[in-house]
Write a structure and sequence with these properties.
Blueprint lengths: L1 H13 L2 H12 L11 H14 L3 E6 L13 E8 L1 E12 L18 E2 L2 E3 L3 H21 L4 E9 L10 H6 L10 E4 L7 E6 L1 E10 L14 H21 L16 E9 L19 E10 L5 H18 L4 E10 L2 E2 L5 H14 L4 E5 L5 H6 L6 E3 L14 E3 H19 L4
Parallel strand pairs: 3-6, 3-7, 7-15, 8-14
Antiparallel strand pairs: 1-2, 2-6, 4-5, 5-16, 8-13, 9-11, 9-12, 10-11
Helix pairs in contact: 1-4, 1-10, 2-4, 4-10, 6-7, 8-10
The chain binds zinc ion.
Length: 430
């Protein structure tokens, strides 16, 4: 019985190869660049047409008033549901529809969706229009092959994941779309490779540190106080104390790549002194002692760490510099924070996808945790829904790179895994 179900789904998915290719190409050809958030309405209308045709009930939701939402760049999202018979769970596939800037170095047209040697190229091909197309093919095939399923299948395509997800999943979660009463299983088809299940991600803390000085003429720096030198002392302290400390903190989470199994800190930016002049300014700089210097830090922390402790490490480092350095004044400002999250390996969505991977690929899945965050954070924190993973086709390292691509065979394999997962979760004995 199970074998027959599985083979019917596998055959039906294989028959949709051309459809999967053209759907992926169509999605890549809508250049949903973020920032600023272009063509969001267009991609939602395209998906509305497609999914309504397949018998889904579709709602377009604008994240009115959310961060970055404006009349010029409205934050549009789409949620499509196909109800089966009563008495089953809801399985939800969530993809973001926005893509990052193109950058330089492309050989292919970034919005051409060209197919070469079994790969589809374009911005967003792997991150994550390929995953979106894969989940649509899986869901359509499943509901078409087994219309008597129990529960419901949902597909959402949401805005702004690349810029924090506030006009996308966070908004939908606030509106109750990810309430565990209405949705029980969530799969986010981010490009984590077709044989890996991503259980969660590390935590994030972004902050700004500013050192203060006093402006004076650059020929008499002793009359002022140089904020850049004060920042230099902060950076030396980081090198001597903070980076070595972070390297000693190791996690039990299966984070990939290996280097991200420890706590990390990046200095995203540094600015001090005279502002950079416009390109059309052809003169020399003026001699001034900088009275302000600012850095932005990006601290990624582990599930074993507490965010209060993470912040205290930085504060005590700054206080130490202050104790040793005459005239040292600073401000520390929080910008953004996300708690780490990790779904249990025995959660129902994890075990169902694991069984499906074993059946389709004839091997056990790898369990991984992402070094960075994605929309699972909002589903977890705002939606309070824990039964959530990322699983989808594509190679994560290609995301945001020139000549980004997704493999057609990988998408087909992932579509089979998704369809078999739906069968395990929603085909109940009647
Ligand atoms: Zn992504």
């Amino acid at each position: 019985m199970a074998t027959d179900t599985d083979s019917r789904l596998v055959t039906a998915i294989e028959a949709r190869r051309d459809d999967l290719i053209s759907l992926t190409q169509d999605l890549i050809r809508i250049p949903t660049l973020n920032p600023p958030g272009r063509y969001y309405r267009d991609i939602c209308e395209y998906l509305d047409g497609r999914l309504s045709e397949a018998g889904f009930h579709v709602e377009l939701v604008r994240a009115e008033g959310a961060l970055a939402d404006s009349d010029r760049y409205p934050r549009w999202n789409i949620v499509a549901s196909r109800e089966g018979r009563a008495g089953g769970d809801t399985v939800h596939f969530n993809s973001h529809h926005d893509v990052v800037e193109v950058g330089n170095g492309w050989k292919f047209d970034p919005f051409g969706g060209e197919l070469h040697d079994g790969r589809i190229y374009g911005r967003g091909a792997c991150d994550m229009k390929g995953g979106l197309a894969t989940s649509i093919i899986a869901a359509e095939t499943f509901v078409h092959t087994f219309p008597d399923f129990h529960g419901s299948v949902e597909i959402s395509a949401t805005a702004d994941e690349e810029s924090g997800g506030y006009g996308g999943v966070a908004y939908l979660a606030e509106q109750g779309w990810f309430d565990p009463i209405r949705v029980q299983h969530v799969i986010i088809p981010e490009p984590l490779n077709k044989d890996r299940i991503c259980l969660g991600h590390r935590g994030v803390w972004w902050a700004e540190i500013e050192t203060m000085g006093r402006i004076a003429h650059g020929s008499m720096p002793f009359l002022g106080d140089c904020a850049v030198r004060h920042m230099g002392a902060v950076l030396s302290e980081m090198e001597a104390y903070l980076f070595p400390l972070l390297a000693t903190k190791r996690t039990e989470m299966p984070v990939v790549p290996e280097g991200a199994k420890q706590s990390t800190l990046n200095i995203n930016a540094i600015h001090g002194g005279e502002p950079v002049q416009e390109d059309d300014y052809t003169g020399l700089p003026a001699p001034c002692v900088p009275d302000r210097c600012r850095i932005t830090i990006d601290r990624r922390f582990l599930i074993e760490e507490d965010i209060a402790e993470v912040k205290a490490e930085v504060t005590s480092m700054l206080e130490r510099v202050k104790g040793e350095r005459p005239g040292f004044e600073y401000e520390l400002r929080d910008l953004f924070e996300v708690q780490p999250t990790m779904t249990a390996e025995d959660a129902p969505v994890v075990t169902s996808v694991a069984h499906a991977i074993e059946k389709v690929l004839a091997r056990a899945p790898d369990y991984v945790v992402s070094p960075g965050t994605y929309d699972q954070k909002h589903i977890d924190r705002i939606g309070r829904l824990k039964n959530c993973i990322a699983y989808g086709p594509g190679i994560l390292d290609l995301a945001h790179q020139p000549d980004e691509w997704v493999g057609v065979d990988d998408m087909l394999d992932s579509a089979k895994v998704m369809a078999l997962t739906l069968a395990e979760l929603l085909l109940l004995p009647s």
